Every structure is written in C-alpha cells, then in structure tokens.
Amino acid sequence: MKKTLIAGLSAIFLLYSCNEKKENKPQPIHVYEKDGVKVNAYDYNGLEYFLTKSNDTTYVVNFWATWCVPCVEELPYFEKLNAGYADKKVKVLLVSLDMHKKIESNLIPFIENKKLQSDVVLLRDPDADTWIRKIDTTWSGAIPATIIYNKDNRKFFEQQFTYEELEKELNNFIKP
Amino acid sequence: MKTLKFLGAFAIIGLLFAFTAAKTVSGYQVGDVATDFSLKNIDGKKVSLKDFKDAKGYIVVFTCNHCPYAQAYEDRIVALDKKYKKQGYPVIAINPNNPEKQKDDSFEKMQARAKEKGFTFPYLLDEGQKIYPQYGATKTPHVYVLQKTAKGNVVKYIGAIDDNYEDEAAVTKKYVEDAVNSLLKGKEVSVKETKAIGCSIKA
C-alpha cells in the first residue's frame, strides 16, 4: 500500500515537473506598451530563461541600448541575421538595457522607426554586479555584448560586430 | 628522461605565454601599482597624481560627456569629490574617448559640461588614448580607487560607484564610499571589484 502510494506520488510529481518545464516561461516584471508596441521587462531571474534554452534552435542574444552608438550601428546586422537565417533555426533576441524611464519615450519609438523584427525585451535589474558575472565571467559590463548559443555550444563576445564577423561566428554554430 | 626534460621545457614556455597573454589584455588588478600620468585638464594645465602632495590616495574615474550611464553618475561624482577631497581622496576624472570618434566628448564640450554640472575636480582628456588601456578601463564610468603608499599608488578597488545607476534613492551598496572609508580607517577594502554596465570606450 505504502509502495503504491509512493509510486503514485512520484508519478504525479514527475507529471507536474514536466508540466512545470513547459510552463516555465517567466512572467515579465513589467509590460511597457505604447502605440500597440509591447515590450516585456524581466529581471535577471526571468531573463535567464532566454539565455539557457535547450532545443534545436541557435539563439543570438545581443545586449544593447538606444543610446549606445556602436550598438545602434550593428543592430541592422542582427536584423539581417534574424531574417536571413530564420529557416536555419536561428533566432535573434535583442536585450535592451535602456533606462526604465526612457522606454515609452526612446525605446518604443526606436522599435517603430527602425521597424525592428527581432524580439526585443528589456532587462530591468539594478543588481548589475551579480547578473553581469552570471552572463559571462569575462564581461566587463561594456555594451554592445553578444551571446551565441545552442544546446551544445555557447560563446560570449564583448565587441562590436560587422555583418561578416557575425555571420562567421554564427556559422560555427549551425554547421554540422 | 629526455622526454621529461622536453615536456618540462614545453610547460615552462607555455606558462610564459600564458602570463604575457594575461598581462597584456587585462590592465590592472587590485594590488597593482597604477601609473601616474600628465594629462590636459579643462583649464588647459597638465595634471598628474603627484601634484596632489597631501593626498592619501585618489578616486580615478574614467567618465565622459555623452554616455547616459556616465551622466547618471555626474552628481554623485561631484558629491564624492566634495566629501573625500578634504579627507585626502580627491576625484580625478579622465575622459578616455577619442573625440574624433565621439564628437560629444571633445575638449571644448568637456569644458562646457564641467561648467554646466559644476565639476569640483580635474576633468582630463586622455589624449591619444594612452592611459586608459594601462588601467584596463573598458567603459564609462569605470572607477579605480588608489592608495598612496611607499611603493606607489596601489589599486585598492575597481568597478562601479554604487549598485543602482538609475535611482540614487534605491542604492543599497555604495562601493566607492565603502572602499575609501575602509582605507581612511586603515582597514582592508571588503568589496574590491564590482561590475556594472557602461558605454564602451571609443578609441
């Protein structure tokens, strides 16, 4: 009797944890909305989900801000990558570090003007000393910065990219 | 035996390489002696650390005009100077950016910004971008707290000013103040290094 109970409980637990896994997409800590454009804000705990997915897609995660000139310069390359490699299971995520008071006034108008197609989320977490180290131990905190990862590999870049450089790095991930 | 010697030689060469590589990329670590410099201040005069005869140390801040992160900290940098200059730790601000790459960080605009914000400290231009790589600064703002000792100006803290750039009222850890307070009491700095977001330096 006891044994069946334990087995039953474990089964329920297993089912539950599987469900958990599917449902573990984090809730944003805030949703900014203007002109029909929505931007989800996450703290680092929430963002981590987007940096650690384990499936057949390769993710290119770029840390940027509208005020960061080199970031804005390289942004079209990420857009080009997102469009051109969509059929090769590549997804770009643009993680904005804009100040939270400037989302409606700067970030959303920027997304509209540039007609950004890649997903944009906001990382809103003041404890940078903790999450910068978690994202990569070598990161000094300067932006732009980029992570390319899939379930097998991960590489961090504290640099500004040209399209050729970016494509070359990506190809190291998607070539068999 | 021969192979062993051979392997040993390889290991030594490898180690040497590892050391030189690490040294060239990383700039100063806590405990290193920081270089002095002679850089042009916004009043046109050259400023060096050694000019501050009575200083016990320095709060060297790599900062600039254009970066919103740096701007968010301007008032707090002025406050640091006002509080600690009289206690022997003046702020020395250095703009590491190449004005040809970043027009808002030109010498003239530095003068204007300093006046507008009431800077109480030297605001120096790293002409030719020669000093910031020696320190290993990568972004603005990027702080180095130095302590004057017999062997030179020793790096005691590297990193952010505090733990909340957006909202001064929500700051819970004042890293630079804590570091300088410890040094003034003759104590070891407890948090020696922190990371923060900033604008990459444009050389």
From TrEMBL, chain A:
Keywords: Cytochrome c-type biogenesis, Redox-active center. GO terms for biological process: cytochrome complex assembly. Residues 21-175 form the Thioredoxin domain. It is found in: Cell envelope. Pfam families: Redoxin. Its main location: other. InterPro entries: Redoxin (IPR013740), Thioredoxin-like_sf (IPR036249), Thioredoxin_CS (IPR017937), Thioredoxin_domain (IPR013766), Thioredoxin_ResA/DsbE_sf (IPR050553). One of its GO terms (cellular component) is cell envelope. GO terms for molecular function: oxidoreductase activity. This is Thiol:disulfide interchange protein tlpA. It comes from Flavobacterium beibuense. The lineage of its organism: Bacteria, Pseudomonadati, Bacteroidota, Flavobacteriia, Flavobacteriales.
TrEMBL record, chain B:
PROSITE patterns: THIOREDOXIN_2 (PS51352). InterPro entries: AhpC/TSA, PRX-like1, Thioredoxin-like_sf, Thioredoxin_domain. Residues 1-21 form the signal peptide. It holds the Pfam family AhpC-TSA. CDD domains: PRX_like1. Residues 28-185 form the Thioredoxin domain. The keyword Cytoplasm does not apply. GO terms for molecular function: antioxidant activity; isomerase activity; oxidoreductase activity. This is Thiol-disulfide isomerase or thioredoxin. It comes from Flavobacterium beibuense.
